[in-house]
Amino acid sequence: PSILQPEHLYSPTAVLENQKGNIFEYSTLLCSFLIGAGYDAYVVMGYATREFCKFNQTRVVCPILPDFSKKEEDAKDETIPKYAIKAPPDLRSKFLLEMEQKEIQKKEDKIRQEEEEKRLEIEEFEKPAPDELYGTRIHSWVVVLPTSMDIEEPFFIDPLTGNKYNLSCPSYLGLESLWNHTNYWVNVQDCKEGCKDLRFDLTDLTCWEHLLAGEPWFSRKSNFTEDEESSVDIILMEKHLDMPASWVTKLDISNSEYENRFPKGQKTILYKKAKLEHFAPYVQEDGLITRITTYADYEWETPEWVYEYYSNRADCLTEIRRNLMEYSILEIFKRGREDCLKEHYYYEYSLGVEAERTMEFFHMARLDGLQKLEMHPLYLTEHFKDREDFLFYRRVDYQKRGLAAEEGPKRIVLISVFLFIFRNLLRNTRNPDKEADKDIARKTFAIEDNQIQLKFHYAPDKITAATRDFIKPKTIEIGERLTFNPDLTAGYQTDPMDKPPKNSYLFNLLEEQLKAEEESLLFVRKMEDDVSLILSKYSSEMLQPKLNISIYNMERNKLAIAGMKEVDKKIREEVARQVDMELDFIAPYFASLGDPKKITLAQALNIRENCSTDFKQMLANRINKIQKEFEKLAKKIEADNRWYEEQQGYISKAQEADFMKKNAEDTFNLHVLKTRITRFQDLAPIKYQALEACFRADKRLQILYY
Predict the structure, then answer these.
(1) Containing H/E element for 271?
(2) Can you give the pTM of this predicted structure?
(3) Which of 481, 528, 180 is nearest to 359 (CA)?
(4) Nearest to 704 by CA among 596, 609, 591, 581
(5) For 523-613, where are the E strands, in sequence order?
């Protein structure tokens, strides 16, 4: 029970290995890591509420529950214009306005009162049942004091949740004692008001009583007068007790243990109207690491929302939000997909390209600049950004399949795999290189009405925009030329004094728009095919999800493991080969004889004699080379010294300092060479003995010794 203290504690190493323990063992483990990180942390034994002691989070709001209810308000331009129109006089009755305001205020007060009553009712319902053991349940946590790491005030840390709490937290009812690796302190302060009024000056004996005496004199306050002996002398006279050394091995968490941070790779926590599920990476086949489910009731029976978070997905999926009340799904992706998909919103039971859905893309990574795509059974809307042709909006209106069949020949010309297009609307931003009356702002291809409607941009200082409507000519057969009839077009000009456009201009404009209509329809059909391809590919990705494994993850990346083993094998073989080549210095003498398997006594004597002679000659060459360098450097130093004696009174201080520096370097190098000569002379007999030992150890020369 929570009113009893544990009789013994497992070490932090055992807690890490078993991934389980009691509250005191968790506090000890957390305190050990905090002290190792430089914090002044202590394990606390005290009293807490029943919910804290039993790790009951059912009345606590999930700390990582996403909140999308608050939308950022658009910044309003509050600048007062220079020329503002005065508001018309208010001729309404002030009495009626006052009475109306009172009625509105009564309704608002009534609504506010109902909300307050409902809130109080919810608080009363959520209030936990009375606890018979209130104030006696033993609990343990960690306190961090403001003596290091820029901590300004003490605070508590719950080892089960890792949450930080102030001293005034009502869940902590009292504190009995605290300890760490240096000492044990007993609290002698009153805890009737909880822990909010506790003082954590551990050197104040009126608040804390320590167990082990002999603390450093600078960590205690001196209460002695000048007539008394100094505090240093008195403390030195006290009996000094040291905390026993820790028997625990160094705490170490490997990468695999850090990844598999939960027992069996997963953990579930129940919160207020929510359930939080954690999964270690790569435990779930689909890469799921966190799932949050919200409920409408306190018994977790009626789910409303599900938030799923993924990692290491090859399809770049990071998050899925499911609205179980509206059956809607929002999928969020990171950069890296081939189709540049960013978000995908759709309904769970709406399948196929014709279903209602919304897709957002990383427009800067797409060649067409597509930013947003809205699909509906009756329309398709595309939003573009940063296009060279200034197109930023396209809307296509569909007609249901049954209605399209009544049109007869038109269905043959613009046949679709699923829907018939009867209107196509395009909008463009302003092109500064064109005149406003010739820069098209909106194009409407009314396919059903056989019309093309154009609206141009507003010219400066104009409150209307020019328009132009065309009735499309009859269908042109292959090889026929387009004919223009001025009676099939009408337009509006913003300036009545302008001359009407010439027929040649209108003919070219009509021909250009007919071509634009055909291209736009092709783009729409291509987009429908692209959406179908995206859905087909994503369906296979969800059925058979693939996870990316980093090349640095040596425990899971099989290719990396195999490659590292192969490289290590080659390195070992190369090192062994080089060692064999370096050690087998007798091989060239056998090669001169043709590498015979057996040799005679005379041949063996000849090999040993030649090898010994070459070895002696090699040592002699080395020592002679060093001797020559020594003599050369000695002559140089002697010549430099003579020059310095002759020019000592004529050179500057800088030249003299440079000479002294170079002379010191040469003298040091001369000493090194002399030491090497002496070392060669001393080691020569030892090397001869080592050579003879090699002859005796070589099986090919055994005929000399047996």
Answers:
(1) strand 266-271
(2) 0.68
(3) 528
(4) 609
(5) none
